[in-house]
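Give me the fold.
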Amino acid sequence: MFDTLFLVIKRKGGFIISDLNLNYTSEMEKAMYQSHGVGYAEYERKLNHRLKVERNREHSHKEGQQVKIEMDRLVHR
């Protein structure tokens, strides 16, 4: 089963509603919760959670790049 999330932003004088078209399965929801401690609904609702998750993803990506660089260095000695 897929769920669709909407972003609602409160602005002076009204709200902005945006369809983010984020579809996810229960397996993806479980993985998100296990990896980051939040589900997709909370991730979409709370900016501070999105920022934390994205910082963690960026950090993990940079660590992976460093591992690759180190492996390339060792292989091409």
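The helical segments are 26-36, 40-45, 47-75.
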